[in-house]
Amino acid sequence: MNLEAIGTLITNEVFDQMVQASSDRLKMNADFINSLNVFPVPDGDTGTNMSLSLESGAKYENDDASLEVGHLAASLAKGLLMGARGNSGVILSQIFRGFAKSVEGKATFNAEDLAEAVAEGAKTAYKAVMKPTEGTILTVVREAAKAGNEAIKTTDSLAEVMEAIDSAAQTALKKTTDLLPVLKEVGVVDSGGQGLVFVFDAFNDVLNGNDITEYKHEPDATEVNEMVDAKHHQSVQGKINPEDIEFGYCTQMMVRIGKGLQVTKEFDYDTFYDYLAKMGDSLLVINDDEVVKVHVHTEHPGEVLAWGQQFGDITKIKVDNMRWQQEEIIEQDETPTASSASKEAAPETAVIAISSGAGISKLFTSLGVTHIISGGQTMNPSTADIVAMINDSGAKKAIVLPNNKNIFLAAEQAVEVADIPTKIIHSRTISQGMAAMLEFNPDVDLEENAEAMESNLNTVKSGQVTIAVRDTKLDGREIHQDDYMGLIDGKIVNTNPKLMDATVEMVKLMLEEDSEIVTIIYGQDATSEMAEQLQNAILDIDDDLEVEIHEGDQPVYPFLVSVE
Questions:
Q1: Average pLDDT in the 390-409 region?
Q2: Which of 84, 156, 448, 466 is the most buried (most CB within 10 A)?
């Protein structure tokens, strides 16, 4: 349905409609954006990151009572800055940072102002990225800005200028497949660029008077959350001791029914439900014609995910260790809070690590990390999360270990607004973060620590093993759904249907003549017995190696392996 197009000025009311509509559009399409992840690993989260980032911006804008659009744009940018998650969320925040700067002080703005604001957003985003890559969200925003500047030469219509911006963004998005070889090989467009197109689509619909009522939040989300909470309460009654929890992993997923390169089973509710009912308790299975949402407490989250993959693409994954959560609750009850601790107890330098898995967090703590932010793959912390940890640490200075390259930009934004001097150590993996900690010295200054810790990052090779969530071809390698993949420093190097075989093959590729120490960290989908089998297999390759085993309890990756 086409309504009446907006007039010649964007007022505070119109701008609010644009922002809220774009936030709704990203929420509705977050799962689709996630599915565009190039690597077939169960951690594609671009859509989730962009949606949560813009949701934060939309809240700041909605809470601002100002009647001036320039002020509302500044609130949007501030909310995006603080809520930014992942590199895609940070780049989106930079686009609107430039946008807000361009319309600063304006009560309303016209078509020319809109074009200039998008252009300034593109410039700011490019400046925020150290090595801009074409074929990404940056290409999309640049081409959109160029089209806006061309359009204002021939029209002063807001609707027409926004139409030109949106159309150019869509065209640029299609071209990303050819601009980046890896996108062309897999046959997808850039996920971040797709997210920005959804934002511009929403802007365009508002300014052209198109019906936007079909774009709304996920249906019954509140009801589903309440049901999940009820299940949690039922499952923990009388189970104060973590050891009494029979099924320790709260596992949630969403499956797009029948979607994906290879679906082996036709969805039938009873068949789907009955299998999962045997896997644990607190089961919820809610579906419509397109998706099925699952919540279950189980001892085998990997098997739950594998079951879901047979019916369609998995678009959301969340795995929580409830035993560890219960331990944390008990420890918090027995330990004074940070606010009640004396200032003398605060460290001179707060060392903050992003970590997923109770065992990994304990390893970091043993190496001298003072604060842990829960997160990593599938759950990137926001800029605000990192800022809060820095500011609440009570320290005079801070060091942040992201342990994931997708957290770098959010961490860098946090440094800009933190209350104390802070340095980022650019650790891309858990193994690199631990290697960096070996060089931390609490008695030297911030600059010296940062330099020493950065220099130690490349002394370790990082290996990760995970499961392929779809069939694909990448770097000339055929990858089949449900195969295990070995990644060395982020690059897929081998695949195998069997977990142990895939891991041993990966380790062989990691070893060199001067390798001395191999560290195995096993996660939620592996066991200590499996880790010992892996240790024996490594010693069969070279019995002069020193092999260490640690329980990491991390999701997504059954094994993390480092070689020094």
A1: 94
A2: 84
401, containing H or E segment: strand 397-401
d(CA 529, CA 219): 43
Contact 26, 51 (CB under 8 A): yes
Torsion from C-alpha of 512, 507, 408, 377, nearest 10 degrees: 180
Q: Which of 309, 99, 54, 336 is nearest to 192 (CA)?
A: 54
Sign of CA dihedral 346, 349, 353, 357: negative
Question: What's the predicted TM-score (pTM) here?
Answer: 0.72
- Provide the CA 229 distance to its chain's centre, in angstroms: 23
Q: Note the maximum CA span of the chain.
A: 77
Return all residues near 309 (Cβ < 8 A) that are at least 6 apart: 255, 260, 469, 481, 482
Query: Distance between CA atoms of 391 and 418, rounded to whole angstroms?
Result: 6
Residue with tokens 């596992």: 251
CB neighbours (10 Å) of residue 417? 16
> CB of 283 within 8 A of CB of 486?
no
User: Tokens 């497949």, residue?
Assistant: 177
Angle (deg, nearest 10), helices 383-392 and 408-417 = 50
13-35 b/e (C-beta count within 10 Å ≥ 16 → b): ebbbbbbbbbbbbbbbbbbbbbb
Q: Please give the backbone phi and psi of residue 346, each rounded to the nearest 5 degrees, phi first.
A: -70, 140
Q: Are strands 477-479 and 484-488 parallel, antiparallel or unpaired?
A: unpaired
| Integer Cα distance of 60 and 23 in angstroms | 12
Helical segments of 84-157, H only = 86-102, 111-128, 137-151
Model confidence pLDDT, tens digit, residues 252-302:
888 999 987 768 999 988 899 889 988 888 777 777 778 888 888 899 988
- Residue 463: is its pLDDT beyond 50? yes
185-229: per-residue pLDDT in tens? 778 899 999 999 999 999 999 999 887 776 644 434 544 554 454
Helix (H) / strand (E) containing 49: helix 46-63
H-helix or E-strand spanning residue 158: helix 158-179
Tokens of 148: 């806006």
Cβ burial, residue 225 (10 Å; 0-12/13-18/19+) = exposed
Structure tokens at 533: 């089998």
Cβ within 8 Å of residue 51, ≥6 positions away: 23, 26, 27, 30, 33, 195
DSSP reduced 3-state for 558: coil
Which spans in 317-377 are helix H? 322-334, 358-366
**Unique residue bearing structure tokens 């430039």:** 98
d(CA 143, CA 38): 23
